[in-house]
Amino acid sequence: MKFDILDMGISFVLVNCDMGSEIQTIEKLKELCDEVQGTYGIFDFICKLRYDDMESFEQTLLKIRKIEKITHTNTIHTIPEQS
Fold it and tell me: What is the pTM of this model?
């Protein structure tokens, strides 16, 4: 299923990494995500992903999860029809 440009999929990925590896991790996340921001609290980063189809979303998410110092991710998937 393809989204039209106005219905492009958007998800947010909450990320944890090993303590002390935040700088190297954020640089790698910036290569894969549309936006990355450090956070206070339970998660170290929030990343915004825009994608055209589920296959590209899943490929990007897999690349994020394979970053060496990342220990945990939690994905919030939006509903394009409700934006």
Answer: 0.86
Which tokens go with 49?
């992903």
What confidence tens digit (pLDDT) does each residue in 57-78 have?
999 999 999 999 999 999 999 8
Q: How sure is the predictor about 7, in pLDDT bands with cuts at 50, 70 and 90? A: low
- Strand ranges in 1-83 using DSSP code E only, listed in sequence order: 9-17, 35-38, 45-51, 70-77
- The answer to the question of residue 38 being in a domain is yes
Segment (H or E) for 54:
helix 54-65
Q: What range does the domain containing 40 cover? A: 5-72
**Token representation of residue 39:** 């956070």
